[in-house]
Specification:
Elements (H helix, E strand, L loop, with lengths): L19 H8 L7 H7 L4 H10 L4 H16 L5 H10 L3 H14 L2
Helix pairs in contact: 1-4, 5-6
Length: 109
């Protein structure tokens, strides 16, 4: 509350249930030939993927991070690690899914 008795509303962006540092670390694990496939699998439109590519032309890690960020913004609380792991396994990317689960354990989530 403010000193005038008004309730202050804090606006917060929806948090990815994994945390920013975990997403950044995981983004570094995704290969250049994998990120678009993952982006499509998690529901991003081609126009969204193209926009990410245009903005982050030479930075793969940031492309991947922005992909996950956009996914969480679109899906809110449904954008969980378990859901992402499931998508990776559906794409036969078991090594990436295992790495994500390993990073989650390291971060205690």
């Amino acid at each position: 509350e403010s000193e005038h008795g008004q309730t202050l509303l804090r606006t917060r962006r929806p948090r990815f249930r994994t945390g920013k540092s975990l997403c950044l670390r995981f983004a570094g694990e995704v290969g250049s030939r994998q990120w678009k496939t993952i982006a499509r699998e998690i529901g991003l439109k081609d126009s969204e993927i193209d926009a990410i590519e245009e903005c982050e032309r030479h930075n793969l890690r940031e492309k991947v991070y922005q992909t996950f960020r956009r996914w969480r913004m679109k899906n809110g609380r449904r954008a969980t690690l378990d859901v992402l792991v499931g998508h990776l396994r559906d794409l036969n990317m078991a090594a990436l899914a295992d790495k994500l689960e390993e990073l989650r354990q390291q971060h205690g989530r």
